[in-house]
Design goal:
It is a single chain. With 105 residues, the chain is of the alpha+beta class. The chain has two helices and five strands. It has one domain. The strands form two sheets. The chain has a three-stranded antiparallel beta sheet with strand order 4-3-5.
């Protein structure tokens, strides 16, 4: 099974983005029950792939992540949106309106 941010086919024929814990493979459905963790970077030009881990199964507390930097998934997603140009409140409102419209289809 693919883990992290994935695209998955739905029963109605649509494809939906989901987030799956990279440790246990459980789908994350509550933004408050997940952490994003990554190795500390030593140089300004370095990059790394973050791990998205659930708190529900205590995956974020496993020893292999003890020295990792971390933030709540909610904060990570907001930072990500801001870094791709969603910087104003109206941008978020428009995105939420589109999501509500999609839910009604």
């Amino acid at each position: 099974m693919t883990r992290g941010i994935v695209l998955q086919g739905q029963e109605n024929g649509d494809t939906a983005p989901l987030i799956v814990c990279e440790s246990c493979g459980e789908r994350i459905q509550d933004v408050q029950l997940a952490w994003v963790m990554w190795r500390n970077l030593q140089q300004p030009d370095q990059s790394t792939k973050p791990a998205i881990l659930c708190k529900k199964n205590h995956c974020n507390a496993k020893p292999e992540y003890a020295d990792f930097a971390s933030m709540e998934l909610r904060d990570f997603l907001i930072d990500l949106c801001r870094n791709v140009g969603m910087r104003q409140e109206k941008d978020f409102h428009e995105a939420l309106e589109m999501a509500h419209l999609a839910d009604q289809l």
